[in-house]
């Protein structure tokens, strides 16, 4: 994906800020479900960075594997907390 310079810079800044906030959320949030959702945000931002660097296969693999695993983790946490 080739974007013009200014749009790419704005998008990179937004992704970087989202990545930092998601990482802080993983560490600071006490609720395991919210922490897992923040980890999901981090993985999505990393895959978007890969798309910007024209690594489309790596981005798709990260989305399918990591984000899918985090969704399963959220389901298990909900089951364990409610049990």
UniProtKB/TrEMBL annotation:
It holds the Pfam family Oxidored_q3. It is found in: Plastid, Chloroplast thylakoid membrane. Signal peptide: none annotated. InterPro entries: NAD(P)H-Q_Oxidoreduct_6 (IPR050290), NADH_UbQ/plastoQ_OxRdtase_su6 (IPR001457), Nuo/plastoQ_OxRdtase_6_NuoJ (IPR042106). The keyword Manganese does not apply. It catalyses: a plastoquinone + NADH + (n+1) H(+)(in) = a plastoquinol + NAD(+) + n H(+)(out); a plastoquinone + NADPH + (n+1) H(+)(in) = a plastoquinol + NADP(+) + n H(+)(out). It is a multi-pass membrane protein. Its main location: plastid. NDH shuttles electrons from NAD(P)H:plastoquinone, via FMN and iron-sulfur (Fe-S) centers, to quinones in the photosynthetic chain and possibly in a chloroplast respiratory chain. The immediate electron acceptor for the enzyme in this species is believed to be plastoquinone. Couples the redox reaction to proton translocation, and thus conserves the redox energy in a proton gradient. This is NAD(P)H-quinone oxidoreductase subunit 6, chloroplastic. It comes from Helianthus annuus (Common sunflower).
């Amino acid at each position: 994906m080739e974007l013009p310079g200014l749009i790419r810079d704005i998008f990179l800044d937004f992704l970087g800020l989202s990545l930092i906030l998601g990482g802080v959320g993983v560490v600071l949030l006490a609720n395991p479900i919210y922490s897992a959702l923040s980890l999901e945000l981090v993985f999505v931002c990393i895959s978007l960075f890969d798309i910007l660097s024209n690594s489309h296969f790596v981005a798709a693999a990260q989305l399918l594997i990591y984000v899918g695993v985090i969704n399963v983790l959220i389901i298990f946490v909900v089951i364990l907390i409610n049990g």
